[in-house]
Amino acid sequence: MATWAYPPLAPEQLSKEADSALPLIKARELEWLLRSLQESLASLKEGLQECAALLAPDEPGSTLVLSSLRSESVKGFVTRVGTKLVKGDVQLRLASLPPPRGAPSTRLTLSQHADSPGLVLQQLVAVRNLVNQSLDIVDVSTYTGNPLDAGFIFSQLHLLHETISEARQMLKGDGDVRGNWWETSAADNTFDPPPPPHVSFHLSIADSALVLLLRTLESTIPSQAPSAFATDISLTGFSLRDRIFGSRQAAHDEAGEVFMWRGEEVRVREKVRVESQDPSLMAVMAKLTALEHEVMRCVDALRVLMGNEDTESEI
C-alpha cells in the first residue's frame, strides 16, 4: 500500500519538509531513549547489588586450596570471608627453607588472636568500594536531577562506565594494582607462631584467582662467619659449585635482583607461585564484564541521538 500527498508537493518542497521534521523526530527518539534508560538503570542496579552480595563478609565464606602442582612445595588452604582471610594452614617444603627439628615441613598458620592484623586483600577492598560507588551513581541518576536531561544522564553513564571498568581491572589484577611484594608481604604477627626469618608471604588477586607468592630471601650483606654448609662459598667472586660444575641457570625471574625488604637489602633465593580459582570472584568478574558492556551500549545509543558521534568513539 502506498500513501500519496494531495495535492502533490514539488521535490524541493518535500525535501524541505522532511528536513524540518527531522529535529522533532530526533527529539522524540531521544526522549523515548531517556525514559527507557531508567529501566536499564534499574537492571544495572540489580546486577551491582549481586556483585556486592558476592563480596559481602558472609559466613562461612570460601575455602580455597593452596597447593603447588606436581610437587610437595606448598600444601594447604585458606578461608576467605569478604575481603579478609580468616583461616589458613599452609605446609612448606622448600629446598632453601629447612623445617624445624623433628618436623617434615614448615607450617604457617594464620593467627586467631584478637590483636592479629589479619590478612586483608586490598584489591577486594577496592573492588567492593568501587561497586558501592557505582550503586551511588545509579541512585543519583535515578533519583537526582532531571531524568530527561540528556547531558546529565550521559555524564552519569560515562562515570558509571569508568567506575565499573576500574573495578573489573582491579579484580583482573593488571598493572601494579596487586602491590609490590617487598612492601605488602604479610606481617610476621599475622601467623601463629611467626614464620622463619626471611620468608615473604604475599597474596593478591589475578584473573579472579587468589595468587600466593612465597619467597625465601637472603641478605646482600655476607655473614661474617659463614657456615661450613653454606651453599655459596665465594672464591674470587665465584661459588665453589660454579667453579666445579659451571654456572647455574637462574631458578626464577627475580634471580640476581636486589630488593629493599623491611629496611634490609635482600635477594630472592627461591620463589614459588600457587594459584587457586575463587568461584565467587569469577562470578563477580563475569557480572562486572556484562555490566560494563551494557553501560557502553547505553552510552553509544545516547551519543548517537545527541549528535555526538564524532566526539569520542570509546570511553
TrEMBL record:
InterPro entries: RAVE2/Rogdi (IPR028241)
Pfam families: Rogdi_lz (PF10259)
GO cellular component: RAVE complex
Record-linked PANTHER family: LEUCINE ZIPPER CONTAINING TRANSCRIPTION FACTOR LZF1, PROTEIN ROGDI HOMOLOG
UniProt protein name: RAVE subunit 2/Rogdi
Organism, as annotated: Penicillium chermesinum
